[in-house]
Amino acid sequence: MTGTRTTCPYCGVGCGVIAGRSAKGAITIAGDADHPANFGRLCSKGSALGETLGESGRLLHPIVRGQRVDWNVALDTVAHGFADIVAKHGPDAVAFYASGQLLTEDYYVANKLMKGYIGSANIDTNSRLCMSSAVAAHKRAFGEDLVPVSYADLEVADLIVLVGSNAAWCHPVLFQRMLAAKAQRPQMKLVVIDPRRTATCEFADLHLPVKAGTDVWLFNGLLAWLHRSGFSDAAFVEQYTSGMAQALAVADATAGDTAAVARACGLDERQLVEFFALFARHERAITMFSQGVNQSSAGTDKANSIINCHLATARIGLPGMGPFSITGQPNAMGGREVGGMATMLASHMDLENAQHRRTVQQFWNSPAIANKPGLKAVDLFEAMHAGKVKAVWIMATNPVVSLPDADRVREALRRCDLVVVSDCIAATDTNALAHVLLPAAAWGEKEGTVTNSERRISRQRAFLPLPGEAKPDWWIVAQVAQRMGHREAFAYENAHSIFVEHAALSGEDAAGNRAFDISGLAEISGSEYESLPPLRWPVPARIARGDGGDSFSIAQRFYHPDGRARFIATAPELPVHRTSQEFPFALNTGRIRDQWHTMTRSGRSPRLTSHITEAYVDLHGDDAERLGLREGLLAQVTTRWGSAIVRVRCSGEMQPGSIFVPIHWSDQFCSHGRIGALVNPVVDPISGEPEFKHTPARVERFAAAWFGFALTRSSIDTSSLDWWTRSDGTDCVRTELAGQQSLPDVRAWAAHLLGSGEEQVDYRDDSKGVYRSAVISGNRLQSVLFIARNAELPDRGWLSSLFRKKVLSIADRDLLLLGASARPGADHGPVVCSCFGVARGAIVSAISKQSLQTPQDVGRVLRAGTNCGSCLSEIKQLLAAR
Ligand code: SF4
Questions:
Q1: DSSP H/E element including 164
Q2: What band does 268 get if pLDDT is binned at 50, 70 and 90?
Q3: Fold observed for domain 585-701
Q4: Which atom of ligand 1 is nearest to the CA of 38?
Q5: What is the value of pTM for the model shown?
Q6: 242 neighbors 191 (Cβ within 8 angstroms)
Q7: CB of 173 closer than 6 A to ligand 1?
C-alpha cells in the first residue's frame, strides 16, 4: 500500500498506520501490515483518525492575552516572562507540564531547556498520571526503568494475567493479538483481575473481581503460596536477585493464610487458589498490568508485588514470560527515555547521581544542571496554587480536565503570573486560562519518534502541511530557549538533528551500565532517519543499528550496582480515603472504548461519539434500585472534592458499592461531566501517581423537572440550561438536556433555543409534561426538540437519520413528532461496531431472528466485529444476554 508510514497517536500499543489519499483526494487511514506492533490491524480509534483531521477547531495563530500576535511577539513574551520570573524568584519558580502525546524529540528539547539551562527539574508530564508507579517499581526492582517483555512474548505465553487492565477497550489491537494467539493455542489461559467485569472479561478463563485496592494482598498471597508450595526457583533467586527473605517475611505475615487473603480481596477462596495454581503450573506466564494497578496510593508497591512473584519463580527474561507494564499513551515511554519527568535526568540517568549529572551537563555543555527532583504533577499544581511556582508552560495536555481535584488545578492556574499553553486545539478547558496560546502541529503534521509499551521506537511522519501558523513543539521550545540566550545549544534544524543528539547522549558513559542505550543510532543520516524502521531498544553502538528485539535475557544483568534484581517487601495498605456513611461508594474512573483523553480529537469523530454519546455513572442494579435510579435518569455524583451530574447506567459490570465514571468529558462537551474535579488528590508516596481508582463518593438522583434532547444542524446555545451534554454526529449535533424548573412557556423557550425556520410543527401535552417540536426549511429538517417530564424519550437514531435527507417525505413528516419510524427496527440504539456503523438493535435483532450463536456468525451476517475487533466483547455480551 502506498502512502506515508506513521504511528497512531493514541494508546501505548503504538500501531503502525499508513496515511494515503483516495482518488478523490481524501485522506485514507489503514493499518501498516509491516509494523510489528499491529501487523495491519487498527482499532476503532485508529481507524477513525482521518475524521479527526482538518482545520476546524484548530489553534492556528499565536495569541497573547486574547490578541492575535505574530510568532516573534509570542515567543518573546514567553522567553522574557520565564526569564524574568527565574531572575526574580529562582529557577524553581517556573515549570513545564508536558504530555505523553509529545514526540520524543519535543520532549528532549523541553527537558534539556528546563534541566540544563533553566536549572530546575520542574518538568513533569501527564504520564505521571498513568504509569509512573510502574516506572518507580521497575527502578526499585531492576535498577532501571526497563520493560522486560515484548508483544511477541504475549503470543507465546501459556498464561496471561491482566491486572487492572481493560485491554479489550484500552489496548484493543494488542488484546486482539492475544485473542488470536489464544485461538491458535486454546490451552493458553487468560486470567483477568479487576473489580469490574469489563469487556476484557468476556474472553477470560477466570475473572477475579478483586476488591478495589487489595492487589498487594493478592500478590503477597501468591508469593507466599508459591514459596510454601515449592514453586520458588532457588537457583535463580540465589544467582540473580536479592531481598527475597524480607519480601517473603512480609508476604507471609500479611498474606500467608490463603483464606484470609480471599476475605481481604473479596474473592472466593477456591477461585483464588485456582489462580495460584494456574500461575504455578505455567512457566510461560506474563502478568500485564495497567492503570488499575498504577493509579493508586499504593501503585508502586502493587507493581512490585507483581514483579516479586515473577522473580521468585524466575518467570522473567525468557520468551513468553515476565511482568509487563502497558502504557496508556503513545509516547509515555519516549518521555521516560529523555527524562521528561521531574524525577529523572535524561537517558535513564539519575538526578541524584553526581556522576550522571556531570555526564549530562558536559554533554549538553550547559550552564546549569538540576540537582534534585522537581515537583511531580499534583505537587506542581499545588505549588502554583500556593504561589511558589509562578509561571507554567503546558504542552499538549489539558490538566484542568485530567488532573485530580481539577477545580483546584483551575484555581492554581488562575493564580499563576504566566500560563503558556502550546496545543493544536483552540478551545479546551485549560486554554481558557492561558495568557499565551501557541499553535502546535498536530498528528499528521509532525516529524519525530515515539516509543510504545514494548520499547519499540517508531517514526511519526508528516503527511499534511502545517496549517495556519502552527509549528512543531520542538521548534517552539527551541525558539524560546534561543531567546532566553541559549542560541547555540538549541540551534536544531529539524527533528533528525535532535534525535541523533538524544541517541548520542544515551551512549555517554553507558558502557553496558544502562539498559537504555540507542547510541547505535547516533550517526544515522537524515535519510536514514526518514526511513527508520520500527525497532526496539537497546541499540548500543556495539550492535549498531540492530534491533534489541528479544526480551531482556537474564544473562545480560539487572541494573542495580550489584547487577541483581531486588525483591521489594510490600506491606498492603488500603486506599487513603475510605468509604463512609456520607460517601458510601468507591468511585473508579477510566477510559471508554472509542474516546481518547479529553476528547479534543476523538470527540470530533462522529463515528467514535456514536458508541457512547455521553458521560455516565455505572453502578450495580441493586444500588440503583435502592437509590431510586434507573437507566436513563440522571444522577449526581459527589465527593469531598467536587460533583458531577451524569446519566445512570447499570451495565452489570459493577460490584455493589462501586461506581465507575469515564474520564473523557470536559466543559466543552458537558455542563457537569468533568470527573477529574471529583477525584481525590492523594498520590502514591513513591511515584506521585494519583489515586484515580478510588475516591469515596455519594450518588443521588438529580431532581430534574424535565428531560429532553435537541437535534440540530449546528451547536445550540447551552448557557441557560441547568444540565446538558453534546455530541457531534454525522448528520446533526445531539444535545441532551435537563432542567430543574418546569417550563411555563415551553413554546417560546423552544423557539428561543432552536431559532426559527420556514415551518414549525409542534405537539404539546401539559398533563404529561410532553412537548415536541420540529423546524423545517426548504422541506429539510433543521431541528427537533423533544421534552418529557420523565426520561422516557424516543430513540435518537431514526430522527438523526432524517437530517441526512435532502427532502422529508410525507411519511417522515407524519411520524416526525412521534419520533419513530413506521419501519420496525429503524431505531437501532447506540452503535456497537464503529467500523461498519452497526447498532445494537441490529445485532440483537439478527441474533434473535437468525439464531446466531457466535461473534463469527454476527460478523458473517452484519460484518460487525470483522475489522478492528474492538466490539467483539460487546457482541459476545449481546449473544450471552440472548
Ligand atoms: Fe491506536 Fe488503537 Fe493501535 Fe492504540 S490500539 S495505537 S488506539 S490503533
A1: none
A2: very high
A3: Barwin-like endoglucanases (2.40.40)
A4: 3
A5: 0.95
A6: no
A7: yes
